[in-house]
Amino acid sequence: MTALAFMILTVAALTNRIRSEFGIAVQTTSWVLAVALFAVGWYAVLWALPRATRDPAALLPGAVMVGVVFGVLQWFMQFYLPSRLERAQAIAGGTGVAVATLGGMFLIGRAMASSFILNAVVYERIGSIAGLVFGAPVLRRVPRRFPVVTRWFDLENDSVADGPDGDVLRRS
C-alpha cells in the first residue's frame, strides 16, 4: 500500500510536469499511461492479498476499475478543482482544500473496497476471464498444449474442460 501511495504521488507529479513542459495535448494522452500504472499498482496489491482462486485473471476487473477511478479522480483534482478552489478561497479559506482532500481519500477508499466486490461478482457470475479468453476459437488448444498455462490460470478448477475432439469447452 505504501508503494501504491508513493506511485500515486509520483504519477501526479509527473503528469503535472508533463503538462507544464509539453502542454495539454501531450498531458491528456498521458492519462492513459497513468490509468494503466494505477491499474497495475492495484493489481499488485490484490495479488498479495488472500483470495479464493489462484487465477490471476480474476483480479483484472477490480484492478481496471480502480485504475480508471484513480485516473478520473486525479484529473478532477488537478484540472477542474484548482480553478474552483481559487475562486472559493477568499470565502472558505483552507476548508475547501481539506474537503477536497478528504473527499478524494473517501472516493479512493470506496473504489478499493468496491474492487473486491467487483472481482467476486464477476468471478461468480461469469467465471474466470481466462476461461473466456482461452475459450476463444484461436486460443482453445493453448491450455491443453501448455499445462503450465492451465495451472497458472487455474483452468482445471474453472468450468472449462477438454471436449471430445480435444477442444476446450465451457461446461454449463
How would you characterize the overall build of this protein?
The chain is mainly alpha-helical and about 170 residues long. It has one domain. It is built from seven helices and two strands. The protein has helices at about 1-20, 25-50, 60-90, 95-125, 130-135, 140-145, 145-150; strands at about 160, 170. It has a two-stranded antiparallel ribbon with strand order 1-2. A hairpin with a 5-residue loop joins strand 1 (about 160) and strand 2. Helix 3 (about 60-90) runs antiparallel to helix 4. The longest helix is centred in the middle third of the chain and has 33 residues, at about 60-90. The two termini are about 40 Å apart.
Main attributes?
two-stranded antiparallel sheet; 3% strand; 172 residues; mainly alpha
Helix content: over 70%
Morphology: elongated
CA radius of gyration is: 21 Å
Q: Spell out the helices and strands N to C.
A: HHHHHHHEE
Q: How many DSSP H or I helices? A: 7
Spans of at least 5 consecutive residues whose pLDDT stays below 50 are 159-172
Largest sheet: 2 strands, antiparallel
Total separate domains: 1
Gap from first CA to last CA: 39 Å
Structural class: mainly alpha
- Averaged pLDDT: 80
Approximately how much beta-strand content do the residues carry?
under 5%
Lateral strand order in the biggest sheet: 1-2
Number of strands: 2
